[in-house]
Design a protein that fits this description.
Helix content is 36%, strand content 18%. With 373 residues, the chain is α+β, with helices and mostly antiparallel strands. The longest helix has 21 residues. 25% of the residues are buried. The protein is built from 13 helices and 12 strands. Helix 8 packs across helix 12. The two termini are 26 Å apart. The chain folds into 2 domains: 124 residues, no CATH class; 175 residues, no CATH class. It binds iron/sulfur cluster (2 copies).
């Protein structure tokens, strides 16, 4: 495998007998601090994230990283290999509201979180805080509750072995009787009966997991998206794949006060304080709870919509992962994480947060940072 590597990816690349790409290479570790063989390692140089010269070990997938790769290969490269992330204050208001709602719910269910620290770190607008506060206080006043016996933020960690022959993995063409492997040296073109077995690792988190089902907690301006099995198939299938005991999921979707309210708020902002907005939204949520808490059941004090395992196309999700793991490896071999300009103006409904990097060709420290290793 190592003969596929060259020092063009990184001038410091100098493989050691301990299988490190160079002295700066850090082996990947799991959350128990155990070395994970076969997983792409990190680079300890300041400002770097993954080792860019390590193109043989896998990078674990998640539902969201696959979504990023499908959106734009270059976006995947920036986020998952260079580890560049947008500093929290520069995220969209929708993401900030979702983050705050997540934290509020997790704190409500028992995780120690300082909400003011989150508000400060993300520099969340007081009017957005007022809306999330109003929703949460209505949630409590309506005595909405959840089933006991959950595990919060339960980890998904699954591994599948993919078995392939080198010729099925690497592009090849048949010329007469001979199979020509497009990426191998000419002298290595003899028949190759080897099988490559390498793991496909998929990671992620359930918001709330029970013995036989899980719950996903969303705050959205368009709740119908999360209540349509067609749109959530990929995410839910991943979660069902990870645990065969799971029979169904409950999508708990709360409506973030929408455009009409935002426009009114803007017009009145000179007169309406965040506190006034809070009171107005609280009254609105209490007067029509099922509008804000989708599927609200007054008797059971619950909300959400149930989706059963059989409604999801799990086989298609598995096949998609098997293919995408190869496509990502292919981009890493060639170094060609090409840009998808069709996504620049619309990544999940918003202009791509990385446009400044693509337009200017540099990474502005004020707006971006490199992930913690
Ligand atoms: S990216 Fe870092 S760890 Fe990898 S070869 Fe270069 S310096 Fe070494
Ligand atoms: S701005 Fe466009 S090309 Fe650049 S990362 Fe985003 S989607 Fe990809």
């Amino acid at each position: 495998m190592r003969n596929l590597l060259d020092s063009q990816r990184c001038p410091k690349f100098q493989p050691s007998f301990t299988n490190k790409e160079c002295d700066h290479y850090i082996y990947a570790e799991n959350d128990k601090m155990e070395q994970m063989d076969g997983v792409c390692g990190l680079c300890n140089i300041k400002g770097a994230y993954r080792c860019v010269a390590d193109v043989t070990r896998i990078i674990p997938l998640s539902h969201s990283s696959v979504g990023t790769f499908l959106t734009c290969h270059y976006l995947y490269y920036l986020q998952k290999i260079l580890g560049i992330e947008v500093r929290p204050p520069f995220l969209s208001n929708a993401l900030k509201a979702g983050k705050l709602w997540d934290c509020v719910k997790q704190k409500h269910l028992g995780i120690a979180i300082n909400l003011q620290d989150v508000i400060n770190e993300y520099e969340i607008d007081p009017y957005i805080v007022a809306k999330v506060r109003a929703l949460y206080h209505a949630y409590k006043e309506l005595e909405i509750t959840v089933d006991e016996g959950y595990e919060l933020q339960a980890k998904i960690d699954m591994t599948y072995d993919i078995v392939l022959s080198p010729s099925s993995f690497i592009p090849s063409i048949n010329i007469n009787q001979e199979k020509i492997n497009l990426w191998a040296d000419r002298q290595d073109q003899d028949a190759d009966e080897r099988k490559w077995i390498f793991p496909m690792s998929i990671t992620g988190f359930y918001d709330r997991k029970y013995e036989s089902y899980f719950c996903e907690d969303k705050l959205s301006g368009s709740p119908s998206y999360y209540l349509d099995s067609f749109y959530i198939d990929s995410q839910c299938s991943t979660y069902f794949m990870a645990d065969p005991k799971l029979e169904y999921c409950v999508m708990e979707v709360a409506l973030f006060p929408q455009q009409k309210i935002l426009e009114e708020t803007k017009k009145r902002q000179a007169k309406e304080s965040p506190e006034d907005l809070y009171k107005r939204i609280l009254q609105d949520v209490l007067s029509r709870p099922s509008h804000y808490f989708q599927g609200y059941d007054r008797e059971k004090h619950r909300y959400g919509k149930k989706f059963f395992r059989g409604e999801m196309n799990i086989q298609a999700a598995e096949e998609r992962y098997r293919q995408i793991v190869l496509e990502i490896l292919s981009c890493r071999y060639t170094g060609n994480f090409y840009r998808n300009f069709q996504s620049c103006g619309n990544v999940y409904g918003h202009p791509c947060d990385y446009q400044k990097i693509c337009r200017n060709g540099n990474v502005a420290d004020a707006m971006y940072r490199v992930r913690e290793k």
